[in-house]
Design brief:
Length: 89
């Protein structure tokens, strides 16, 4: 499943930027799913910044809708940021 989203990387948690191919865990309806983030308008994203991204989830069917807000982390203990789904397709 592929989506386009607005991603906000929080100031707290991650201290370094990430680049294309970043693979955090996404919390969806109480379960964690893996996916790959690709930045559309830059090479890296630093803490405190926002960007439009494309995300490919490694699961065929997820119950997602435009406007949903999802959170992501690396180890499920500290939320590193959030995304708002803009397009599904």
């Amino acid at each position: 499943m592929k989506i386009v989203a607005m991603l906000y990387l929080y100031d707290e948690g991650r201290k370094t930027p990430f680049s294309n191919g970043y693979r955090p865990l996404f919390s969806i309806n109480g379960k964690n799913y893996s996916g790959e983030i690709n930045l559309k308008d830059r090479n890296y994203l630093s803490p405190g910044e926002k960007s439009i991204v494309k995300i490919v989830f490694f699961h065929d069917y997820l119950e997602l809708q435009v406007g949903d807000i999802l959170y992501f982390s690396e180890d499920t203990r500290i939320i590193l940021g959030e995304i708002e789904i803009l397009e599904i397709g």
